TrEMBL record:
Keywords: Decarboxylase, Lyase, Pyridoxal phosphate. Coiled coil: none annotated. SUPFAM superfamilies: PLP-dependent transferases. This is Pyridoxal phosphate-dependent decarboxylase family protein. Its cofactor is pyridoxal 5'-phosphate. PANTHER family: GROUP II PYRIDOXAL-5-PHOSPHATE DECARBOXYLASE, MIP05841P. Belongs to the group II decarboxylase family. It comes from the Bacteria.
Length: 483
């Protein structure tokens, strides 16, 4: 390294090292099928990360070797086609390269007059087109849907109470705001209600029907009850793609109720909203175009590398008036670097922001949204194949309807919950497939979410074969435990 700066002293040597690092990651992706999806972490490896603070330099080549040996093999594995747990995107080598370009540029997208912010504004216009939102709609890239949901709640709060609430706080407000979502909604909505200072009691959790959709009659009566008690209903969050079974709420009906009750209509479409890119799936999201705000992730079905969440708000002025904050050192000009107001920092909590827009823009450019829509439809076709395999196998049982790309099932047997919990762990530890578990109608289900564009029919065959093999083995072990 150079003595004066942190840049390399010998750029040629550094360049060779850089190419080795790039090649290693391309090899990793190209040959990912040859690896286990995930593997248990040896304690000895874990222990090597309990070392003292490095006071002196270490050669980058040695740090890279350590990454290859001790870090890369022990990540969660969501890039692997056998990864089916939770709802995780697989990423792409294209996205990886875009991340490198963004890191090399190291620009801060909080503000200032620069083309990287135009890239983010271009994305906002594209997202507006995707969801049929008007020109005045605004948007912002954030870490993920958890933050996007929080932003939506804050904008809805300010829109309802007026911007004065930003000065006085909720303690001085007479209205008691209440919001609504379903029992199948992601917990980050309750967390966001809490973080917004409303208190979790302000969220009404409405039951769902057998298809996992919010019960509309129960919603209407909850709103009526709250009004009768003098409370102020203000926010309704529908879900497009629930985490447990992939259900989509009846968004048109929710939009009608929100309209007649004067509620802010938000859609948590964390992974499901991008199904709109597939002409065959888009009708399932009918009504999403009427939302006041939509939260979703490019890092799930969009396959953009982590992290890339998005918030879209119909009323761009309401969005900005929730977050803008005049400060002398952030003064805007009409010319020079301080031009180009409003800045992204006027639309959310973050001032310093990375160039998430680049990997997202590059992904949309390089693949095109038609191809991305086809890929999303393909993951649903793979899920339907898994469903048929389960229905044809007497030892397996489907536990929930397969609405999009999530399949919940179990191996039949006594003590089914314990049996299936152990099968899921055995599958994960085998490195063959990595589903997760959830609870469907009070029963533990093995849950396979097909999000990764690399997951194909042969991965489903491997999952089924391994589930049957581990199911028999675990059942025998449990019988021995009982004896
Ligand atoms: C994943 C998910 C979230 C959380 O999104 P993050 O990007 O992890 O913050 C919220 N809601 C639903 C329906 C999800 O699937």
């Amino acid at each position: 390294m150079s003595a004066e700066t942190l840049d390399p002293f010998d750029w040629d040597a550094f360049r060779r090292q850089a190419h080795r690092m790039l090649d290693d990651m391309l090899d990793y992706t190209q040959h990912i099928r040859e690896r286990p999806v995930w593997q248990p972490i040896p304690q000895a490896i874990r222990d090597t990360f309990r070392e003292p603070l490095p006071l002196d330099p270490t050669d980058l080549a040695m740090v890279h070797d350590r990454f290859m040996r001790d870090i890369l093999p022990y990540s969660a594995g969501n890039a692997h086609p056998g990864f089916m747990g939770w709802v995780n995107g697989g990423g792409t080598p294209v996205g990886m390269l875009a991340e490198m370009l963004a890191a090399g540029l190291n620009t801060n997208l909080g503000g200032r007059d620069q083309i990287p912010i135009e890239i983010e504004r271009q994305l906002v216009r594209w997202v507006r087109d995707i969801f049929g939102f008007p020109e005045g709609a605004s948007g912002l890239l954030v870490t993920g849907t958890s933050v996007a949901n929080l932003i939506a709640i804050l904008v809805a709060r300010t829109a309802r109470l007026g911007i004065g609430v930003r000065q006085t706080g909720l303690a001085n407000v007479e209205e008691k705001l209440v919001g609504y979502t379903s029992s199948a909604a992601h917990l980050c909505i309750a967390k966001a209600i809490d973080m917004a200072g409303l208190g979790r009691e302000a969220l009404r959790v409405i039951g769902v029907d057998s298809a996992g959709q919010m019960d509309l009659a129960a919603l209407r009566s909850a709103v009526e009850r709250d009004r009768a008690e003098g409370l102020t209903p203000f926010f309704l969050a529908g879900t497009a793609g629930t985490v447990d079974i992939g259900a989509v709420d009846d968004l048109s009906a929710l939009a009608d109720i929100a309209q007649s009750e004067g509620l802010w209509f938000h859609v948590d479409g964390a992974y499901g909203a991008l199904a709109i890119l597939s002409p065959e799936l888009a009708p399932r999201l009918a009504g999403i175009e009427r939302a006041d705000s939509i939260a979703f992730d490019f890092h799930k079905w969009g396959q953009v590398p982590y992290d890339a969440g998005f918030i879209l708000v119909r009323d761009g002025a309401a969005h900005q008036s929730t977050f803008d904050f005049p400060a002398a050192y952030l003064r805007r000009e009409t010319r020079g670097l301080a031009a180009g107001s409003p800045w992204p920092c006027d639309l959310g909590p973050d001032l310093s922001r990375g160039f998430r827009a680049l990997k997202t823009w590059v992904t949309l450019q390089v693949y095109g949204v038609r191809r991305l829509g086809e890929m999303i439809a393909h993951t649903c076709a793979v899920a339907q194949y898994l469903k048929r395999c389960i229905e044809q196998e007497p030892q397996l049982e489907l536990l929930a309807p397969v609405s999009l790309n999530i399949v919940c099932f179990r191996f039949r047997g006594d003590y089914a919950d314990e049996l299936n919990r152990r099968i899921a762990v055995a599958l994960q530890e085998s490195g063959i497939a990595a589903p997760s578990t959830t609870i469907v109608n009070d029963a533990i289900a093995i849950r396979a979410a097909i999000v990764n564009h690399r997951t194909g029919f042969m991965d489903i065959d491997a999952l089924i074969a391994a589930t049957l093999a581990f199911g028999q083995r675990v059942r025998q072990e449990m019988n021995k435990d009982v004896d």
